[in-house]
Amino acid sequence: MKVSKDVAAQHRAALLEAAGRLFRDKGFAGAGVAEITREAGLTHGAFYTHFASKEALCAEVLATTLARAAEAFDRVGDAGTYIDRYLSRRHVQDRATGCPVAALGGELAREDRAMQRIFAAGLEDFLARFVPKRGGRAARSRAIATYAAMVGGLILARAVGDEKTSDEILGAVKAELRG
Predict the structure, then answer these.
(1) Burial 60-77 (b: 16+ CB within 10 A, else e)
(2) Which end of the chain is more exposed for a tag (fewer CB within 10 A), N or C?
């Protein structure tokens, strides 16, 4: 059955949204095409209308979620507020719609160069927003260290499985970053 361009665009968006949530929650290997299409409310065949392969979907989801994460910084407007929201109990509990770097970063080290290039471009986009306009190399180094501490802190806070220790980690990283 032929669908309109608007409906096709809606289907594609639904697949990207569902895959984005599932990949961040379960990892690239943990979510299959059948589960993604079911989550999007579509058929398995609809997937292949929009994507040549699961790998193509993974690449597009990575690029899209990284761009949205960078745009989230723009909406917040300042680093202190962004850090507070990033290192929050809510973000710890909401892996499926949270930071793609914290959710998928460990997997990206094992992905192919194409996926790593997508990640590197997304990281550069984020850093360009996070580094003060006239900051130079020192500001870029601080931004890299800050972001690495934020991502690492979030990963640790999620991994401990204990809310008290998780909150301790979040608090310690926030305090260190506010130095």
Answers:
(1) bbbbbbbeebbeebeeee
(2) N
